[in-house]
Amino acid sequence: MARLNPFTRMPPAPTTTTTTTATPTTTGVGADDAAHPGPGPRPGPPVARVRGHHRSFGNLQVLRSVDLDVAPGEFVALLGRSGCGKSTLLRSLAHLDPVPAGEVQVTGRSAVAFQEPRLLPWRSVHENVALALLNGEQRAQRHDLAAATLREVGLEEKAQMWPRQLSGGQAQRASLARALVSSPDLLLLDEPFSALDALTRIEMHQLVIQLWRRHAMAVLIVTHDVDEALALADRVVVLDGGRVADTWSVDLPRSERTPEHPEIAPLRAEVLHTLGIRPTPPNPHVRPPPAPAWQPSPAASPPSWSRPCSPAARPAPPATRRP
Fold first, then answer.
1. Full domain range(s) for residue 128
2. Is the per-residue pLDDT at 89 higher than 80?
3. Could you tell me the CATH number of the domain that includes residue 221?
4. What is the pTM of this model?
């Protein structure tokens, strides 16, 4: 059976307001997901729908007629240069800023984890997570739910500590727990791993994928990191000049999504090209090394002086006669 191309350029979102149905796929499910299959996009109305969205700050127009759908259970990465409107679009989806009627629709609960953990320093880690349910329907169960969520992110033993006692990675886990405790249908991540060291970022990537599989929620992550987007997302969206410039669907097992993979490497180059990044040109002031005067034939054996000598081929030392 022929293998399908795991990278499919997606058509732009429709400009009409007609309800569309997402096609179920096996995106993100591969050899590494056999035991814990990811949710992937599911059929049904989008969890988030953006149509003709505009945002301006004074005379500066940040978003220009943006169209975007996020299907239930889908993992979307939003890439773009600084100032292109990524975080502005996320704030619109989270309803943190006023949005014109009809331009942004979100079904169900949404929650946000920001680049900074934003934990209250005078509250314990447990209390910071429980505060997310203080005014909700689950107010009475907030302490039990906070304890369970901290256990999910590996902070059960840190529950009674103060935020200043946490490392950067632990603080981000607490911020993630605060967003997850309300069981959102849409989790919004605004560059939450950009300030972490490389090893901690890898651990947080694995944690987010585990939580996404377990809770089957839709996730939209804003990032500057192309490799992070390709490693995590079902779909990569590039925002440029306040508009959606291009979109790719990634249908490759996450365990195979390394920069050296023969199918990831060209996709990575295409995404970087869309972002305006070109390969580094060769240094014109450095001359290439001259070719050696003598080139051995490929079929010829190496010279004897370079051939290693095995112990069996070494001459035996001369026998010595005992007196």
1. 121-183
2. yes
3. 3.40.50.300
4. 0.74
